[in-house]
Amino acid sequence: MTSLTHSAFDAMSDRGTSAVAQSHSADTAAARKRGSTRRADRLEYRLIFALAFIVFFVVAIAARIMPRAWRERVLGLPHRGGIVSDARSMVTSSIPFAFMA
Fold this sequence. Notes:
Blueprint: H1 2-65, H2 68-75, H3 83-98
C-alpha cells in the first residue's frame, strides 16, 4: 500500500512540477510581451513626438515672422526663448491629446 501511495504521490508531484514550470514559462512570456509592448509604446511616443516637433517647428518659425502681439493672440505663447524651445513646449502641451483616445 505504501508503494502505491508513494508512486501516486510521485506522479502527482511530477505533474505539479510540470504545472509550475508551465506557469513560470507563461509568466516569463507575459513579462516579455509586456516589455515588448513598453518598447513599442516608447517607440510610438518618440515617433509621434518627432513628427509633431517638425510640424510645430515650422509653426514656431512662422510665429517669429508675425508681430509679437499677433503671436501672443494667435498661438497663446509669448516669446519665451528660442524657436526650438517654443516648438518643444508646443509639442509637450499637445502630445497628451494624441494618447487620450
